Automatic annotation (TrEMBL):
Fluoride channel required for the rapid expulsion of cytoplasmic fluoride. It comes from Cyanidium caldarium. Signal peptide: none annotated. This is Uncharacterized protein. GO terms for cellular component: plasma membrane. The chain crosses the membrane at residues 89-110, 122-144, 151-171, 191-211, 291-310, 322-338, 350-371, 416-436.
Length: 441
């Protein structure tokens, strides 16, 4: 009747909601398989197959392509799946480039160049703060997906898959572990630092993601109580019923009481639900905005890539050339990860093969680049190396989605198995590709 969803929420009545849904969570009695339930609780429908983060973010889950010729904005190019895909691609490209720039900037801010908080040979590896920040915002985004995604689906997709996915990087973390393990016998205790970096690299993003979920929940309750409820007497009454009942209830019973108190025409943020969901064939405003979004995001994506290409050609600084090239390559890494998630994440019951494949490919790419760097290095090869590592590999691999998938797996043995398989596979392949070259120099 119920289960855990992609974002760590429950699937009830055929849909998934993040964290604790105010409308659909079961009571403890339902969890125990009995017939009893709270007053007014409807029978749950059969559970639908679990969706991946990429599938839930896809605009095709929210917008139905027009079949009736009623809305001029659902005809021609702007009413086709090509328009939908282009809009998704443009938004992910823009947000992906922004994610790469923020990742590089935070890496420099906390790195030895400025803040000297992180370093290449410390357990506080260079991209630890970046992975923490990106995972936090992923938690906030997953918690607000039911409030934002129906109205701003492209922005939500770009923010989660593009920005958070590119801001965090699995491959760079894995590569720094490889380098520290490879230097383990140089008398600086690199083995111990690498082991601690491995632990921190998992624990800090997991905590940051959970903190993001809790932050969203706290903000949501503040908005409902102090912003929405004073303007809506019906919502205020329901919220007071929930507050009066929650103190004596368990977590699941509290969630059921919340659902009963806020049941009706409100979403989890206290907004009244529209009579018709956005995106229908007769929703001219929605489709007009979609057309504008296609043109605006496309122009912005092209302008950002063109500006980065000009930077590669004209910037005299070698390091900055590598950063500009990373911006040019970043959208390709985002697209690869997005498509892998869409087509592979549902192939296995508990192992998201799409995210796993993206992280493995990104880690293997980094290991190959750093291995080649040991034997051949010149001005332009260094620029290309930086572009590949920070651009394609950094955007293709992700920590934020990885920890979100660990959190949503309610069977702990499968979550630990997924984490163990991912880390072991990338490290073993990295040792074969990079470690052998390092040790045979």
């Amino acid at each position: 009747m119920s289960g855990r969803g992609e974002s760590g929420g429950f699937i009830i009545n055929g849909r998934e909601d993040s964290v604790l849904d105010l409308d659909d969570l079961p009571t403890r009695r339902e969890q125990n398989g009995t017939e009893e339930d709270l007053e007014g609780w409807a029978d749950a429908e059969p559970q639908t197959p679990r969706e991946s983060l990429a599938e839930r973010s896809s605009l095709q889950r929210n917008v139905t392509i027009a079949e009736e010729v009623l809305n001029p904005y659902t005809q021609g190019f702007f009413g086709t799946s090509i328009s939908v895909k282009l809009n998704e691609v443009f938004h992910m490209a823009v947000f992906g480039i922004i994610g790469v720039l923020v990742r590089i900037g935070l890496g420099l801010l906390f790195g030895p160049q400025h803040g000297n908080v992180t370093s290449d040979d410390s357990a506080l590896f260079v991209y630890l703060p970046v992975n923490a920040v990106g995972s936090f915002f992923m938690g906030v985004a997953v918690g607000t997906d039911d409030a934002i995604q129906p109205y701003l689906p492209y922005v939500h997709l770009g923010f989660t898959t593009g920005l958070c996915g590119s801001l965090t990087t699995y491959a760079s973390w894995n590569q720094q572990l490889l380098e520290m393990f490879a230097r383990g016998n140089d008398g600086t205790n690199q083995w111990l630092r690498a082991l601690f970096a491995l632990i921190l690299g998992l624990e800090v993003p997991l905590f940051s993601y959970t903190l993001g979920l809790h932050t969203e929940k706290s903000i949501r309750h503040f908005v409902i109580r102090y912003v929405r409820a004073p303007r809506d007497p019906d919502l205020a009454d329901r919220y007071e019923q929930y507050r009066a009942a929650r103190r004596s209830l368990s977590m699941l019973e509290e969630a059921a009481a919340t659902a009963a108190a806020l049941r009706g025409g409100h979403d989890r943020w206290g907004l009244r639900k529209p009579d018709k969901p956005p995106g229908g064939d007769d929703d001219i405003v929605f489709h007009r905005r979609r057309c504008i979004a296609t043109v605006a995001s496309g122009a912005l994506a092209v302008a950002m890539v063109a500006l980065a290409a000009i930077g590669v050609a004209l910037d005299p600084d070698q390091t900055r050339k590598g950063y500009w090239l990373a911006c040019v390559m970043a959208p390709f890494g985002v697209m690869i990860r997005w498509q892998l998630g869409l087509y592979l994440n549902r192939r296995h019951r508990w192992l998201p093969l799409g995210t796993f494949a993206a992280n493995v490919l990104g880690s293997v790419g980094d290991a190959a680049v750093y291995g080649a760097r040991l034997r051949r290095n010149s001005y332009w090869t260094e620029v290309v190396y930086q572009g590949v590592v920070n651009g394609i590999d950094g955007s293709m691999s992700t920590i934020s989605t990885f920890v979100a998938e660990l959190q949503r797996e309610w069977r702990l043995r499968y979550a630990y198995a997924y984490a163990t398989i991912s880390v072991t596979t990338t490290l073993m392949l990295g040792f074969l590709i990079y470690g052998v070259q390092k040790w045979t120099l």
